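Iron-sulfur cluster-binding protein
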Amino acid sequence: MLTLHFEKQNRTIEVEPGTNLREAAIANKIGIYQHIFKILNCRGRGLCSSCRVEITSGNVAPRNEVEENNLKKALTKNPNLRLACQIKVEDNLVVRSHV
């Protein structure tokens, strides 16, 4: 089992390797969406970029094409941004949501 620690919510959960970060957060009732995006989001398809998170500790695979395209402008301000819906958990992670 791997651990995911969500900084802003001060919660740690355990997940199986290969679990999708967005799905793990939702299953454990950890909010990764802000404002209206709690309702209006792309449901994990990588289209809306409203599930942006910052990985502050741990290793994840490099960004895929979906992330590169949707985070282009945001990456100039914060190069550690990722889309939770595109991350498969393969290491213990510390995640900062609502960035």
